[in-house]
Q: What sequence folds into this?
């Protein structure tokens, strides 16, 4: 017996509310984080394990800026005040990233150290940034979202449609997707059309040939860290607005971020974006309980009693690990065959 139209609509709304919208927002956050990782790897040739805590540092600057604005009665109306704090936070984070590069990574880069040495150095930077963030913010959850909470609430949606299931779209979720689209578009235009972007791509493709062509390596490295810091701040702040801020969470985010970068092809910006959404949708869909969804589509006598959940939510990050391992075993270069910026 086939389900009625209203049951199908209820099932679709349920999946949109609990799977598609959250995964789309989460995927946008992962995509921005993976872009920072893949940019550093493609140009500087090492896996930056401190990127997660750079995201935490950038988010900390956004939170401090938000609190300062709120204390002075400044807001963005229905939008989060954090949007106004993005620019100064990016500047501070970029300065911190440049200082770290000059005091840590430049030392090893000038000595042509093996990439694994830079990776180990980035782990040290990770612990340093983590300590700074925890010293400033503590270890408790911090919520800094204000303005309107929902673009549309589940109750309003049910009243408009007459369906049993409601669709709730949070302002932070919509904001995440819009900001991610704008940021990615600007970055791709910059890399493709600007003179500096072309120089970065040339340096990534062949460092020695780029130097012979008159490209300034110090300028390329400087711009790379500025962009990486901007992406880390935006990704971290959007994640914090959507899910709340806790420093240790950003260390955990390293796994899905690296999984996204590697799935797409590390060093490939478009791959980082695609990989971010693949990892996000995989995590959400494999940990979602399908009981209510199947209850709308199946006859009452066939409706499941259990949750129909493939993996518990506690195993969400295990999905990223499995994806990472499978990709490394089957196609180590990723979907778009990284490792140069194109």
A:
């Amino acid at each position: 017996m086939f389900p009625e139209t209203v049951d199908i609509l209820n099932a679709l709304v349920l999946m949109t509310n609990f799977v598609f919208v959250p995964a789309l927002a989460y995927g946008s956050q992962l995509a921005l984080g993976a872009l920072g990782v893949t940019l550093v790897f493609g140009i500087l040739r090492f896996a930056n394990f401190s990127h997660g805590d750079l995201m935490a540092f950038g988010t900390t600057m956004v939170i401090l800026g938000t609190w300062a604005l709120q204390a002075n009665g400044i807001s963005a109306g229905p939008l989060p005040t954090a949007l106004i704090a993005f620019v100064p936070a990016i500047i501070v984070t970029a300065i911190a990233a440049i200082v770290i590069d000059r005091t840590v990574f430049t030392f090893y880069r000038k000595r042509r150290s093996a990439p694994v040495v830079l990776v180990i150095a980035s782990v040290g930077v990770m612990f340093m940034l983590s300590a700074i963030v925890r010293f400033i913010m503590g270890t408790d959850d911090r919520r800094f979202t204000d303005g309107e909470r929902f673009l549309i609430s589940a109750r309003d949606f049910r009243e408009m449609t007459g369906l049993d299931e409601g669709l709730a779209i949070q302002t932070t979720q919509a904001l995440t997707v819009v900001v991610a689209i704008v940021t990615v578009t600007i970055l791709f235009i910059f890399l493709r059309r600007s003179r500096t972007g072309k120089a970065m791509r040339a340096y990534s493709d062949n460092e020695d040939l780029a130097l012979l062509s008159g490209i300034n390596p110090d300028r390329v490295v400087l711009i790379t860290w500025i962009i990486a810091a901007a992406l880390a701040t935006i990704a971290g702040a959007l994640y914090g607005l959507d899910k709340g801020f806790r420093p240790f969470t950003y260390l955990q985010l390293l796994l899905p971020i690296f999984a996204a970068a590697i799935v797409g092809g590390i060093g490939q910006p478009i791959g980082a974006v695609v990989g971010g959404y693949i990892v996000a949708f995989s995590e959400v869909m494999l940990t979602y309980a399908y009981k209510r969804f199947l209850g709308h589509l199946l006859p009452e006598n066939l409706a499941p009693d259990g949750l129909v959940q493939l993996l518990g939510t506690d195993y969400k990050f295990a999905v990223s690990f499995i994806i990472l391992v499978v990709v490394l075993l089957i196609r180590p270069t990723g979907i778009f065959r990284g490792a140069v910026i194109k």
Summary: The first helix runs from residue 5 to 44. The first strand starts at residue 150 and ends at 152.
